[in-house]
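Workshop exercise sheet. Pairs work together: one partner reads the sequence aloud, the other fills in the structure field after running the prediction. Swap roles for the next sheet.
Pair: D.N. / O.F.
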Amino acid sequence: MYLHANAKLGLGGRLALVAAVERGLSLKAAAAAFNVSPATVHRWWHRWLDGGRKPEALLDRSSRPHRSPALLAAELQERICACRRETGWGPRLVAAATGFAHSTVWKVLKRAGISRPPKPFKEPVNSYEWPCPGDLLHMDVSRYARFRRPGHKVTGDRSHRAGGWMRPETRVGYDYAHAIVDDHSRFAYVELHDDEKAATVTGFVERALALFAEHGILAKRLMTDNGFSYIKNRSLRELLAGHGIRHLTTQPYRPRTNGKVERFHQTMAREWAYGLAYRSHRQRNQALPHWLNHYNRRRPHSSLGDRPPISRVHNVRR
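Structure field:
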């Protein structure tokens, strides 16, 4: 039910008010009893009578006037709305194009419900979690630029960027962070490499499986995207077949399918790669094992009830 902002009585109070008057209480006495003015009691009592003594009669009415002589003509309003639909401009640009005042254009667009662009459609969240560690491993790679000295974000000095940041000696390549995250426990394993070639990926997966096995996590499925080094990698296919692991791939252009490792990369970038100031990429790389140990063993994880990933591994192993 809509109520005016200054209304003292809700629907229940109005019903109690008219019921008191029907029981014989005068309008003035009812006003004093309900702490409202006699005019308010008079209004609600006569609305109650005119409405056939039905609760709907006590609902608020629209404050809009019956006539609006100064309202813009319908064809002029349609001109404004058509300009908005064709161009996607805001009220100021539409006002300049149509010759109306900015305030008039804003009101017309708001009444028509097109003052803001429609929100993009969001698919419903499809969160899932496999019941045991090792049921599904998520794998992905992220790239971090190398640097020999801190950039302007740390130093605040942009003078060296003018014409110098693209010199060959300043381009030192990238570090590729290969990561695997267990779906159930969120236990993660990361290695930094110079590339993401097939041999690199296979060696990384082999070492990751060995580490997970040390913690009692025996992998059954591995999910990756459709990268060439994953789906066209014969050595990886043979490695997974030897361990009896099923290789799953995400739908094209659907990174949310592999969302847990994607989210892990965001956390790693925010807390490790860009969360601290490093003198060079070598110092940053040296800090990765310490951060990863903190992530797995001490850092609270919101999806695990603010417990670290290792807690779920230990709970399964008793």
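Discussion prompt: The first strand starts at residue 137 and ends at 145. What would you look at next?
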